[in-house]
């Protein structure tokens, strides 16, 4: 069984490799985004030493690493599931001797590894030449970041599985999936570190899984928090992985019973 | 006379496409609603960014919170007009790779008009409404006063902004006529346009130059908005907006027509 999923990860990785031209423009797009926020934040900080618990150097590192983390955890498996449901392919997927959702997760992981090696890696190198950028000081910090990034990937993939599974019930939910994408970008701390939000908003976001997708790993990377706190954040991520498992299993059970195959 | 007849004809077809559009969209009501909500959410998220940032600082360069909000509200109007009429961001895939362009060329009206008609997205009109609401809010906060001709100037500037976008995207889509491989330029330009939402003086000289003369997205946001904010330093740029609109739209159409004349058909 493990061999099967390893093969799926490898296949997706190779597929991505075959279409790698897309990714050269992708690096530039991420560069454009990081650049925009770099200038905005420089103007916002002006003469200020610290805002929201971050210095201006930590902020620029945060912006860059937040986008690079996104390169790893981002995937479109909800759109893929929606397409499978719409085209009726999901019926074939369901009679195959594997778990459909695990297959999607494995494919997303293959995509993530590809982006991490060919996209985030060169991207972060190029960016560190242009803007002031601070890498983690020790191997331990690197390790913490990578562990946290791994869980970030899992949580984001789980969120995508939930929205993807909703297609079984709504038949068409592209609009919702697009809205989810922007909401995740905001609430995960990609455009704005969570510590910038007013107190009540931070409290509310504490009840949502989104900041575990980007804010936690990025914060660990910038070195703005202690090692102990970093482990706490990873603990929270583990908790979220377990919690989101529940709606996924529930929806998956329901979905199999009320599947309507529209195409063929 | 001939051209008036022609314009009337295009207008009529436009109305027909519009009613077809609503029929197909309303077949999946939940999806239609989801689309509206997702557009609204992405508009609001930039607003959230501005509002939250300004709880920490009083000024960004020399601009206050409400001025930045006003610029953003202004930007939404030409942007919505543009995305309503020029929704063919997937032109390469939809028309060149699938060979649909051959069909377009057999249609009686101008091929660019035909492509625009097929990808029209009238529900983006809500972007105009949210832009106006955001501007209205900022204008009240800033206590701005308007003259009787300002609404007319606003319409003119918003249309000019939409023409700049339209021209740039038309020219970039026309690249597909020369090379049918995916270039990835469209999403690149799409991401650059967000630079125009903020005052150009926060960027460095190179980016400012690009946003003014090469990809003049600053003319869609900050420059024309500066006129209503009575920032006299930017008046010359604001006045240039219609000129830039005409120039860039003309460039777009010329490149497009040139591309069509070179088009050989790639699909099957």
From TrEMBL, chain A:
Pfam families: ABC2_membrane_6 (PF06182). The chain crosses the membrane at residues 21-44, 50-69, 113-133, 145-171, 183-210, 230-252. InterPro entries: ABC-2_transporter-like. Keywords: Membrane, Transmembrane, Transmembrane helix. This is Daunorubicin ABC transporter permease. It comes from the Bacteria. It comes from Brevibacillus invocatus.
């Amino acid at each position: 069984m493990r061999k099967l999923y390893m093969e799926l990860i490898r296949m997706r990785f190779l597929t991505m490799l075959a279409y790698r031209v897309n990714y050269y423009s992708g690096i530039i797009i991420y560069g454009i985004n990081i650049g925009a926020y770099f200038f905005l934040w420089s103007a916002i900080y002006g003469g200020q030493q610290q805002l929201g618990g971050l210095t201006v150097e930590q902020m620029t590192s945060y912006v860059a690493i937040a986008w690079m983390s996104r390169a790893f955890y981002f995937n479109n498996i909800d759109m893929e599931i929606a397409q499978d449901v719409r085209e009726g392919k999901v019926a074939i997927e369901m009679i195959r001797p594997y778990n459909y959702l695990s297959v999607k997760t494995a494919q997303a992981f293959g995509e993530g590894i590809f982006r991490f090696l060919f996209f985030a890696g060169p991207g972060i190198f190029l960016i560190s030449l242009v803007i002031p950028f601070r890498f983690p000081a020790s191997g331990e910090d690197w390790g913490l970041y990578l562990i946290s990034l791994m869980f970030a990937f899992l949580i984001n993939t789980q969120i995508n599985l939930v929205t993807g599974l909703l297609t079984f019930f709504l038949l068409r939910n592209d609009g919702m999936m697009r809205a989810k994408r922007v909401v995740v970008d905001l609430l995960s701390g990609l455009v704005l570190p969570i510590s910038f939000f007013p107190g009540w908003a931070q409290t509310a976001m504490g009840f949502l899984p989104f900041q575990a997708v980007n804010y936690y790993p990025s914060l660990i990377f910038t070195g703005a928090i202690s090692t102990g706190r970093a482990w706490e954040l990873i603990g929270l991520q583990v908790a979220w992985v377990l919690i989101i498992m529940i709606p996924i299993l529930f929806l998956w059970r329901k979905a199999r019973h009320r599947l309507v195959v529209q195409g063929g | 006379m001939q051209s008036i007849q022609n314009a009337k004809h295009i207008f009529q077809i436009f109305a027909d496409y519009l009613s077809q559009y609503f029929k197909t969209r309303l077949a999946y009501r939940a999806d239609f609603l989801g689309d509206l909500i997702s557009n609204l959410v992405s508009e609001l998220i930039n607003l959230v960014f501005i509002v939250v940032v300004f709880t920490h600082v009083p000024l960004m360069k020399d601009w206050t919170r409400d001025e930045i909000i006003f610029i953003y509200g202004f930007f939404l109007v030409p942007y919505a007009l543009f995305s309503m009429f020029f929704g063919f961001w997937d032109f390469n895939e939809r028309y060149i790779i699938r060979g649909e362009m051959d069909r377009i060329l057999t249609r009686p009206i101008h091929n660019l008009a035909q492509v625009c008609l097929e990808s029209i997205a009238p529900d983006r009109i809500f972007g105009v409404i949210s832009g106006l609401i955001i501007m209205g809010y900022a204008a009240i906060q800033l206590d701005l006063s308007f003259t009787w001709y300002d609404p007319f100037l606003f319409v003119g500037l918003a249309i000019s902004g939409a023409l700049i976008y339209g021209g740039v995207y038309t020219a970039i889509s026309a690249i597909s006529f020369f090379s049918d491989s995916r270039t990835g330029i469209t999403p690149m330009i799409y991401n650059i346009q967000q630079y125009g939402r903020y005052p150009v003086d926060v960027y460095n000289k190179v980016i400012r130059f690009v946003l003014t003369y090469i990809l003049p997205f600053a003319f869609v946001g900050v420059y024309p908005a500066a006129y209503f904010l009575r920032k006299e330093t930017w008046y010359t740029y604001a006045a240039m907006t219609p000129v830039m609109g005409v120039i860039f739209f003309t460039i777009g159409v010329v490149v497009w027509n040139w591309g069509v004349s070179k088009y050989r058909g790639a699909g099957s």
